[in-house]
Write a structure and sequence with these properties.
492 residues; 4-stranded mixed sheet; single chain; alpha/beta; 17 helices; CBS-domain; 12 strands; 10% strand
Length: 492
């Protein structure tokens, strides 16, 4: 590994850590403005007057009795009506509103809105409660969008792609642009979310193209992401971890539905591989019948893992418990996650076993503070910073998040959400997050300096300058402190 620039590293991470929360914050927490809401019978003249009295750039049209949103009228749309159309200002606004605006539940994560805003090219998201009542309005300015970092052209190329070759070309451009942003000093958290957002758009477009080739069953379904994809922590070398969830009308239809979905899921896995997202070596992919399941089967899987914490269940816990929806009926996956988070804290034996498994991987530091190298013949004198670096933080954050029923899957946001406690101050939380991102930065730098996939996460500390060696040691010491907290918390 060549010398990294420690000044750029610390400056970029400092910007990263100034953020409170991130892409998995509930959207309702970002809807800071009080939107203008008017009934469908209001005239355009009344709407224009209301807009002129405030600073809103959109009007929500909602039923006053039920609170259900019916549509949206934007300032841009009103200006067009006034300038270019023969508009009757005394006509009801319902005749001119956008009748099916982008709508998400208010507790959906910000990342979901970010990706859908970019995909659909719109400027607003209506927020609703689970029962459909209007809850708020999000403008694209309210969330950190994907337009930064020169992504505008990439988003357009993704939307315009019509075949695998075009998708593979734009996926390669995304990785190259991500590398440029990293070298320019972009913070790790922002970069991973940038990559994850664009990779989401690529995968969604791939699914759209292939969906058109199949006569899929007319039942609700959703594509799932696990592992680093589920945590929004994708790096430059990442493989597929995905699955498919469907909702049969009758339980006895499950096998036939699975048989119908599998060829489609396998085609998507093949297309993603063609685009540079390597197939999962453990075959954790939607095209595997084992992970193309009904809602009831997914619940059965999670319930079985929680109930009997055998080694295989613990292994699955490190992958599957970080899931999020990508494409399809998001509410199916949100319901599954709510179900899981309500039950995980009720299984202390599983969480304790998961903690013991995490403690079995110690930080690569000896008693004298020296690095302890992996015993790897192909890569002597190196440390795998995925397994013995980033994983240390990921595991602790996951266990503590499950124990407290925290919705977020992202490691940094889990660490923030667990909050302060005995022996853990706000400064400690910031140090943990910074240490995790520092380890990730070393990993990303290594991935850009090697063509050997097996060595993509392996760092030789002797090749680092003295300051970077010290920084890496201090980051690993934070992981050791976190493991000590886990050990004490579970009495291990």
């Amino acid at each position: 590994m060549s010398e990294a620039n420690p000044a750029a590293m610390t400056a970029a991470e400092g910007l990263d850590l100034s953020r409170e929360g991130g892409d998995q914050l509930p959207l309702r927490t970002l809807a800071s403005r009080s939107p203008l809401v008017m009934p469908p019978t209001a005239t355009l003249r009344e709407v224009l007057f209301a807009v002129s009295q405030g600073r809103e750039d959109a009007v929500v049209v909602a039923d006053t009795a039920s609170g259900l949103p019916l549509g949206l009228v934007t300032l841009r749309q009103l200006l067009h009506l006034l300038t270019f159309a023969d508009t009757d200002l005394d006509a009801p606004v319902a005749a001119y509103m956008i009748g099916a605006p982008l709508t998400l539940v208010a507790d959906a994560p910000a990342h979901r809105a970010k990706v859908l805003l970019a995909k659909q090219g719109v400027g607003h998201v209506l927020l609703v409660e689970p029962d459909g009542r209007f809850a708020g309005l999000i403008h694209q300015a309210d969330i950190l969008g994907l337009r930064a970092g020169g992504a505008e052209e990439l988003i357009g190329a993704i939307a315009a792609a019509r075949d695998h070759q075009a998708m593979a070309a734009v996926a390669s451009k995304v990785r190259r642009r991500g590398a440029e942003l990293f070298r320019a000093g972009m913070g790790v958290e922002a970069l991973c979310q940038w990559l994850s957002g664009l990779n989401d758009l690529i995968a969604m477009r791939v699914i759209e193209l292939i969906e058109d080739e199949f006569d899929l069953p007319a039942v609700p379904w959703c594509w799932l992401l696990f592992g680093s994809e589920g945590r929004l922590e994708q790096t430059f070398t990442t493989d597929q971890d995905n699955g498919l969830l469907f909702e049969p009308g009758k339980p006895e239809d499950t096998e036939n539905l699975r048989a119908a979905f599998l060829p489609f899921a396998q085609a998507v896995n093949d297309a993603l591989h063609f685009c540079g997202f390597e197939r999962c070596r453990g075959n954790i992919m939607a095209g595997n019948p084992q992970w193309c399941l009904s809602t009831a089967e997914w619940r059965e899987c999670f319930a079985g893992w929680l109930k009997v914490p055998e080694p295989e269940a613990l292994l699955h816990g490190t992958i599957f418990f970080d899931f999020r929806p990508l494409y399809g009926r998001y509410e199916l996956v949100d319901q599954l996650r709510a179900w899981l988070l309500a039950r995980a804290p009720e299984h202390p034996l599983f969480l304790r076993a998961l903690a013991q498994q995490a403690l079995d991987v110690a930080p690569p530091l000896g008693f004298a503070g020296r690095f302890v190298y992996d015993r790897n013949r192909d890569f002597p004198h190196t440390i795998d910073l995925k397994i013995r670096g980033a994983r240390l933080f990921v595991d602790v954050a996951r266990i503590e998040g499950l124990a407290k029923g925290i919705w977020a899957t992202n490691t940094a946001e889990r660490l923030r959400a667990t909050g302060t406690g005995p022996g853990r101050s706000a400064g400690d939380i910031a140090a943990e997050v910074e240490a995790f991102h520092l380890v990730q930065r070393f990993r990303l730098h290594q991935q850009l300096t090697t063509t050997d996939l097996d060595g993509a996460n392996r760092v030789d500390p002797s090749q680092l300058n003295e300051l970077n060696r010290l920084m890496l040691k201090e980051a690993l010491k934070q992981a050791r402190k976190m493991q000590l907290r886990l050990q004490q918390g579970f009495g291990l």
